[in-house]
Amino acid sequence: DSFDILGDGVKELLVGRDDGMIEIYNFESADDPVLRHDYALSESIASIQGGCVGKDGYDEILASTYSGWLTGLTTEPVHREGGSGEELKLSQEMQSKISSLRNELEQLQIKVLHEREKYQQSSQSSTAVSSVPAFSVNDKFTLNKDDASYSLILEVQTAIDNVLVQSDVPLDLLDVDKNSAVVSFSSCDSE
After folding, report:
1. Distance of CA 11 to the CA centre of its chain
2. Are the CB atoms for 71 and 54 separated by under 8 Å?
3. Predicted TM-score (pTM) of this structure
4. Which tens digit of pLDDT belongs to each residue from 14-61?
5. Is residue 112 in a domain?
6. pLDDT tens, 144-185?
7. What's the structural domain count of the chain?
């Protein structure tokens, strides 16, 4: 997307990458764009948009991820400083908003507990049927020309516990910065 997120009168280029990076490029001169800010998410970005969404007067970048999460980056200051001895005073509107969110959170927690109990009861029943749900897998296997390696990227809309890679030829697994996996090797019986 292109949007004036920096407020300098010139639109910046907002880029959402499939490796989870959000980048803001500025065109300060007629030459190449300059990377001004970046932010890393843990999954690939499906779309990105700039605009004023949450609070009037503060622009934001909204990004939706592969699994459906919506993430917002705002220009609104997160912290406000008060003078010495000043107490933080919330407006009546803000207090009612906080109260409403707390009530909604309590209701959701009660609903989750109820559904967990319902699931536990149904799974222990003699008539329970177990099935593996179908998941859409976002996978990429790309060649990195610089070091002659391949990158395997897997994304699923749920937690990934294990990934098994089996090969007929010897493999060297390389660790990368964004990898949170624990790699273990085992030899395979040729039979």
Report:
1. 25
2. no
3. 0.52
4. 999 988 889 999 887 767 888 888 998 888 898 999 988 877 888 899
5. no
6. 898 888 888 888 877 778 888 888 787 787 777 766 777 777
7. 1
Give the torsion sign (CA, 45, 51, 55, 60): positive
Q: What is the 8-class DSSP label of residue 120?
A: H
Residues 6+ apart with CB under 8 A from 47: 16, 63, 64
> Which pLDDT belongs to residue 96?
85
Q: Could you tell me if residue 20 is inside a domain?
A: yes
Taking alpha carbons only, the member of 59, 47, 55, 40 closest to residue 16 is 47
- Which amino acid, 35? L
User: Residue 75 in contact with residue 60, Cβ under 8 Å?
Assistant: yes
Do residues 20 and 33 touch, judged by C-beta distance below 8 A? no
Could you please report the per-residue DSSP string of 7-70? Answer: SSSSPEEEEE-TTSEEEEEE--SSSS-EEEEEEE-SS-EEEEEEEEEEETTEEEEEEEETTS-E
Six-digit token string for 149? 């390696």
Provide the residue range defining the domain that includes 15. 2-74
In a domain, 27, yes or no: yes
